[in-house]
Specification:
Elements (H helix, E strand, L loop, with lengths): L4 H22 L9 H18 L8 H29 L2 H16 L7 H13 L1 H30 L2
Helix pairs in contact: 1-2, 1-3, 2-3, 2-6, 3-6, 4-5
Length: 161
């Protein structure tokens, strides 16, 4: 059964979500095993590239290989962004904790020219924009990692005969 890069991207994203949830509920917050999500992401992209290289549809060109990887990582990125948004909306305590730390940081700055009311207003804006900031960061991060892994793996795959 041949799976398209789109389907492989969906499978990759589902695996990434599973790892993310398992890590969140089963590991300490500072565990390096949380990075397994990115290993799954890279593995899904490489799986797509290798399968494409071995298919009759492959021209052996870098652009052809990169295109297959792109189709995989773009759908995985889209799904992960939706997941990130939903997960953060379901856990408003993340925004609360981050806002609390932001406020402490602002209060701890020496020679801070802001009044306590200004700091409170800044903290409220920070808290209200927290989810979107996390989503923007995940978009940028997943696209950057996806493009880098796809480019590097495509280059390696097309150089090998």
């Amino acid at each position: 059964m041949k799976l398209s890069p789109l389907i492989k991207g969906i499978i990759t994203a589902v695996l990434m979500i599973g790892i993310s949830l398992a890590a969140y509920y089963g590991l300490p917050a500072d565990s390096p095993l949380h990075y397994l999500v990115f290993a799954a992401y890279a593995t899904g992209i490489i799986w797509t590239l290798v399968a494409h290289r071995n298919s009759p549809a492959s021209s052996g060109k870098f652009s052809d290989s990169f295109n297959a990887g792109f189709r995989c990582f773009i759908i995985a990125t889209l799904i992960m962004v939706v997941y990130t948004f939903t997960f953060n909306k379901l856990h408003p305590e993340f925004a609360e904790e981050s806002a609390r730390l932001y406020k402490e940081q602002q209060l701890g700055i020496k020679n801070n020219s802001k009044t306590p009311a200004e700091i409170d207003a800044d903290t409220t804006r920070y808290k209200n924009g927290y989810t979107m900031a996390v989503v923007y960061g995940s978009i940028f991060g997943y696209l950057l990692i996806g493009a880098a892994v796809t480019a590097a793996a495509s280059l390696i795959i097309t150089r090998r005969k």
